[in-house]
Amino acid sequence: MNRGKIEQMGDPNTLYGRPGSVFVANFIGETNLLRSTVVGTEGETAALSWNGITIKAAQGGLTPKAGDHLYVVLRPEAIHCSAAEPTSGNRIKGKIRHRVFKGNHTSLSVEVGDGTMLNALVHPSDVTQLNGEDIWVGWKPETTTVIPDRHAHN
Questions:
Q1: CA-CA 20 to 30 A from 99: which of 41, 105, 122, 140?
Q2: CA torsion angle 30 7 16 130 (round to 10)
Q3: Alpha-carbon distances, residue 44 vs 39, 56, 79, 138 (angstroms)
Q4: 81-138 per-position pLDDT tens digit
């Protein structure tokens, strides 16, 4: 509920994996919200312009059109960090700005592109493979979804 109004109904997995609004995405767990512009669609996947690159994301039940402004919901545990450029999926260069060891995972704050900070949760053994600050950040399109940017005038 948001100000006495039901934002979305569903089981916890649906609310977490396919939130219907920015409020729900932020209310249920940590998230990275990537404000993007649709450049095209193919099947159930949207191609979006974000931070100077084209990324792909699951449409999540929406029917976006080119030019629409949407948020890509990218959960921290869906992000893979590596020293080498990933060969598939979405990817962007970044710099580790902050690391916090939390036992079963390490939380990374990674600065990408125009200064956007992405939060990633990685296994501690994966962190040892990252030498220095410069890394690649990647994720699979099917691990994301898009939600409306209610402030945009699509």
A1: 140
A2: -30
A3: 14, 10, 21, 20
A4: 999 999 999 999 999 999 999 999 999 999 999 899 999 999 988 887 887 789 999 9
